[in-house]
Amino acid sequence: MGSICYYIYILFSEKHDKYYIGYTSNYQQRLIQHNTQEFFNTYTSKYRPWRLAGVFECGNEESEAVKIERFIKKQKSRRLIEQLINPSFIPQDSLAPLVRVPHVRD
Question: What's the domain count of the chain?
Answer without folding.
Answer: 1
